[in-house]
Specification:
Layout: E1 11-12, H1 18-33, H2 40-69, H3 73-99, E2 102-104, E3 114-121, E4 124-128, H4 134-147, E5 151-155, H5 161-174, E6 180-184, H6 187-195, E7 200-204, H7 207-218, E8 224-227, E9 233-236, H8 242-254, E10 266-270, H9 271-288, E11 295-297, H10 301-312, E12 317-320, E13 324-325, E14 328-330, E15 332-335, E16 352-358, H11 361-369, E17 376-380, H12 384-393, E18 398-401, E19 422-423, H13 428-434, E20 436-443, H14 459-468
Parallel strand pairs: 1-6, 4-5, 4-7, 5-6, 7-8, 9-10, 9-17, 10-16, 15-16, 17-18
Antiparallel strand pairs: 2-3, 3-20, 8-19, 11-14, 12-15, 13-14
């Protein structure tokens, strides 16, 4: 294996061996042990380097994602570039404050001691990126990891090869090439890196692979952050603005051909407005796809075959779309999908939107809560009481009222799942803390040194210590 220091395009490791992985992690440990990554100035240089990398290479990123995903340049800017630059700039602005030790109070028994929480980097972290938003979901976690002062080894997805190669080429040019390394290759490389004993594993991807990553990390008691997915529901009540709801639901579904972990997975709509919502969805679908190809690109044959099988099963009434060919699928609206069908069983991750009628909000909440906890839930309603019910009664990674996806763009909010949809959170300060150890520190003066703390204890000493505790 050639190190990044010797090879400007990064570390190419289609067949990474255990010895090579151990060497790589050892080199990163040596860099971290030198103290090089600790100062605020080093951390800010890396974050500013990420901003420059994206600002100066957006056309190359757009070309890579056009090749890997068939995505247009605007969606690349919105989904990968603007989101990442926003995260990095937010961290640059607030990092000095985040790094300050936090003073906390002490109980009477410890006075006049001074207690603080000090944030220290974990050491060497492994970031495992997915293929659907490869730049954002690789660099987004790296913003937190570098802000916290860590060394990073990045493993991009092999299913987005052009994006992976571009990251391997660009990262050594903009970031500290000794402290940030890129490992390309198949999934086996990930296993070798975990076995080389990193200090934290950050994984974004599907739930099943997330289980395997956690199992591999558990052998070494390596902590993990898992950003997974699940079937994110949309609930539409009779008090919703149906035109706006339809437009925003489809906007969230159409981005990246529905291959988004936060994409609306299915719609539960009150029966009294079901037909009206379906009509609005059909109208808005035509409007939003104006000037675009009828069918949307799916990442590879395996994913296309999976989605095609959902449609072949005839899960309900197809009221719009339904065509498929050559790894492309038309955005498809399916009304009255069978809750037991494939399309309603697992995360769709494609341009298929099932729509089911429910009697009322209570039935919708019950339907959602009988399934695994989703990464997101969306409610369209102008009724404040209904909004509060969904916030209180549905457990999920995050909730958006009267829109979809938008909470991922708010760095002031933690982003993460719960249960099957993930473990841990990041973004903004939450990303800094995700990759930091919160070390407890207590400084005690040598005087006064109360004798009653130490044995032998008189009865009077025991009574006083009980009062102080």
């Amino acid at each position: 294996m050639t190190s990044v220091a010797d090879r400007p395009t990064g570390t190419q490791t289609a067949d990474l061996t255990a010895e090579q992985a151990a060497q790589l992690i050892g080199e990163l440990r040596a860099v971290h042990a030198s103290g090089r990554t600790q100062p605020l100035e080093w951390r800010l240089r890396q974050l500013k380097g990420i901003v420059r990398l994206f600002e100066e290479n957006e056309p190359a990123m757009a070309a890579a994602l056009a090749s890997d995903l068939g995505r247009n340049a605007h969606d690349t800017w919105f989904g990968d570039v603007a989101s990442t630059v926003g995260e990095a700039r937010y961290a640059i602005k607030h990092l000095k404050k985040w790094m300050r030790p936090k003073r906390v109070g002490v109980p009477l028994a410890v006075m006049p001691g001074k207690a603080r929480i000090q944030y220290e980097p974990l050491g060497v972290v492994l970031v495992i990126g997915p293929w659907n938003y490869p730049f954002y979901l690789c660099f987004g976690p790296m913003v937190g990891a570098l802000a916290a002062g860590n060394c990073v080894v990045l493993k991009p997805s092999e299913h987005a090869p052009a994006a992976s190669a571009l990251m391997a080429q660009l990262i050594p040019k903009y970031l500290d090439k000794d402290a940030v390394r890129v490992v390309e290759g198949e999934a086996a490389a990930t296993q070798q890196l975990i076995d080389a004993r990193v200090d934290h594993v950050f994984f974004t991807g599907g739930t099943e692979i997330g289980r395997k990553v956690m199992q591999a990390a558990a052998k070494h008691l390596t902590p993990v952050t898992l950003e997974l997915g699940g079937k994110s529901p949309v609930i539409v009540t009779k008090d919703a603005d149906l035109e706006v709801a339809a437009r925003r639901i489809l906007w969230g579904k159409l981005i990246n051909s529905g291959q988004t972990c936060l994409a609306p997975d299915y719609v539960l709509v009150e029966n009294s407005v079901k037909n009206d919502l379906v009509g609005q969805l059909k109208t808005q679908l035509v409007a939003l796809r104006e000037g675009e190809a009828k069918e949307q690109q799916i990442v590879n044959d395996r994913q296309f075959d999976r989605l095609a099988s959902y449609l072949d099963e005839q899960p309900g009434q197809v009221v719009a779309g339904g065509s498929k060919a050559d790894t492309k699928i038309e955005t498809t609206l399916v009304v009255d999908a069978d809750p037991a069908s494939q399309v309603m069983s697992g995360e769709i991750f494609g341009p298929i939107l099932p729509i089911l009628g429910v009697k009322d909000l209570s039935e919708a909440i019950t339907f959602v809560n009988r399934r695994e906890k989703p990464l997101a839930s969306y409610l369209f309603s102008k009724n404040k009481a209904e909004q509060q019910r969904v916030l209180n009664e549905i457990s999920c990674g995050g909730t958006v009222i009267n829109h979809t996806l938008m909470h991922v763009l708010v760095p002031q909010l933690p982003f993460g799942g719960v249960g099957e949809s993930g473990m841990g959170a990041y973004h903004g300060k939450w990303g800094f803390e995700c990759f930091s150890h919160r070390k407890s520190t207590l400084v005690m003066p040598t005087r006064p040194d109360l004798k009653m703390i130490y044995p032998p204890y008189s009865e009077r000493d025991k009574k006083l210590l009980r009062k102080l505790a």
